[in-house]
Amino acid sequence: MSDPYSVLGLSPNASDEEVKKAYKTLAKKYHPDVAGNSPEAARKMQEINAAYDQIINHKESYSSSSSSSSYGYGYGGYRSAEQEEPIELRAAVAYINARRFVEALNALGMIPQERRSGRWYYLSAYAKAHTGDSVGAMRDIEIAIQKEPGNVSYLAFRDRLTGRRSAYEDYSRSFGGISTGFFPCCFPFFPCCCII
Amino acid sequence: MFGYVLANASSLSKEEKEVYKAHYCGLCRVLRERYGQKAIMALSYDMVFLEMVLSDLTDSEETRGKERCIPHPVKEHEYVTTAFSQYAADMQMLLGYYSLLDKVKDEGKGKSEEKKMRSILPDLERKYPRISEAIKTGLCEIEENEKKNSDDAEGMALLFGTILGEVFVYDEKSFFRDDLRSLGCALGRFIYLLDAWCDRKKDEKEGAYNPLPADINESSMKEMLLDAAAAASAAFERLPLDQHIFILRNILYSGIWSKFKEEKK
Lengths: 196, 265
Prior knowledge:
The structure holds two protein chains of two kinds.
Chain A: H1 4-7, H2 16-29, H3 32-35, H4 39-60, H5 75-79, H6 87-97, H7 101-109, H8 118-129, H9 134-147, H10 152-173
Helix pairs in contact in A: 2-4, 6-7, 7-8, 8-9, 9-10
Chain B: H1 14-35, H2 45-57, E1 63-67, E2 77-81, H3 83-107, H4 111-118, H5 121-127, H6 129-147, H7 153-168, H8 177-206, H9 218-236, H10 245-253, H11 258-264
Antiparallel strand pairs in B: 1-2
């Protein structure tokens, strides 16, 4: 794929905020309600989506060398590896590639306990992290690392999960932190807008 | 629902407060128009957050106006409604109905309200089959685990999170479906855990169910909450939001902790 920034009409040092703005502007332009159901507009929309995905999801894997690791982190990262997967994991990987994480977890769940490899736990952690289950993701990635202690992808993925935590805490400080005082409310038992 | 997902007003600017309040009043107005005066009892900040995320995400057109209402009859105030005010109002009623149903089954309270609300259900179920199903099965599972006195707080929180995750997916075909689901799920986990934390003393006194261990301390509670909040914001930051980003970040990074801190005192 061509440079994702140029797809969005941006220079490679554009900020995330600029990427988001540019994405929305283009998405509106090629939205079926505006552009009609032309295949051209649909193709363009796909390109814009892919470019956005690549930039934003790549940014999230800050703690690792995602491009050089064997499986990568972006959704696209899996694609090349699909054929090399053990057969019973292929369905799950295909779902992950298609960003269908709920189905991926279902597919993984069909594999009996005794056949669950380090790889299985890694995929499960990956899918859980993308459905909002960060606790389950952490539990599974720890097991994956136990089973294959030297695997850099697993270690990098764990870093990424813990990185989210510290990023959150750092950022929340700029909002006065999580220890800001509470505001009184005039109707404690009534849904109330007086706090603002 | 619970109303934990609100802003920290002390760090919002005057303009931001006005925007936030206008969205709140907009949702209130839609609830009243569609479901009658009583429905505003169900109004919660959680759904204002949902409305603001979705309308920002899709650059929804805004309708503005001024009105007086029963809770605030004197001063005229501004409201903003978008296509998602309706959606958020519907979600509020769906969630409200099923939790009321639980209450009727458990405590025998709210029978007359349940009867009244039942009439709106067929429409909502027809309009949102996937979400209704998720709420129904999710709450059912939660109830079963409560009966078994489950002590797996994270597992219970995940069940609730799964429900909210579906609620956040307003359109299965949206490119941002997964990030919305993640955001909703992690926020749901946060809400469930914080609710359990806030209720734990009352539950103990009444001998009611609470998923948290009796000897839980504040710092381990904070760890659990931080994990959920961080997962929510990781998904949130992937969404292309720009209009209300300061207010929404204020909520996610600060406001959602308000009641945790209040409890501490």
